[in-house]
Amino acid sequence: MTERAGESKGEDRPAPTLMEQMGGVSGLVYSSLPVIVFVLANSVFGLKAGIWSALGSAVAITVLRLVRKEPLQPAISGFFGVAVAAFIAYRTGSAKGFFLFGIWASLVYCGVFVLSILVRWPLAGVVWNLLNGTGTAWRSDRPSRYGYDLATLALAAVFGARFVVQRWLYEADYTGWLAFAKIAMGYPLYGLALLVVVWAVRRSDKRIKELEAAREAAEADTEAALRAKYGQYDNSTD
Q: How far, in Å, CA of 57 to CA of 41, rounded?
């Protein structure tokens, strides 16, 4: 009785919204804050102050997540990204160097997503089904795979657009616009691609359930037919 009640509570729990899946408003603030701090501090106090201010804000975010008992992995990843960006800015002696790592990382991500489509293992489907332990049945269903192809292509387009736009701004020495583009083409643009991923997931899950139900029904019909056949045979021999 208790187990059923627990199961019903789990079933009644609302699915996380799109914003929650992306980390919520706090995730948007956390990812944007070091960039904003860097640009402001650099414009007022210079490059070194901008670098240390960005690193300080990343550390503060990590500590805040720790105090609030929030997942640390995003904070650690964010701090690593800021540290690499700050190091490149320091080595190049230019504020725009702060964005160089993210620019080329976007190109690499775009290439990986496109490659996964070409080898017929679209990453949107691979990652989702791996995290949820649902196996690789989706690859045997062509419409499901095509849906994940589109979702993966949408993600590739996001990273490709980031590279093209931000690379152009980098070459044009528009550091302020680089910061704006990094923020605007971050969570907001990623959210649009995530809508396509959600569509592909729901479409695939529905199809897999229908195919599984059809297979079970076919097996049941076959078993019933065999029983009827051999049952009739046994009666005739008696």
A: 11
Residue of 57, 62, 23 whose CA lies nearest to 40: 57
User: What are 215's two structure tokens?
Assistant: 């297979």
**Residue 212 C-beta-side C-alpha neighbours within 13 Å:** 9
Alpha carbon dihedral 141, 128, 189, 165, in 10-degree steps, equals -80
The answer to whether 61 and 75 are in contact (CB under 8 A) is yes
- The burial class, CB within 10 Å (0-12 / 13-18 / 19+), for 113 is buried
**Measuring CA to CA, how many Å separate 103 from each of 82, 85, 179, 181?**
13, 10, 12, 11
pTM score: 0.74
101-137 confidence digits (pLDDT tens): 999 999 999 999 999 999 999 999 998 888 887 788 8
Q: Do 59 and 79 contact (CB within 8 A), yes or no?
A: yes
pLDDT digits (tens, 9 = 90+) for 44-78: 888 899 999 999 998 988 888 888 877 767 777 78
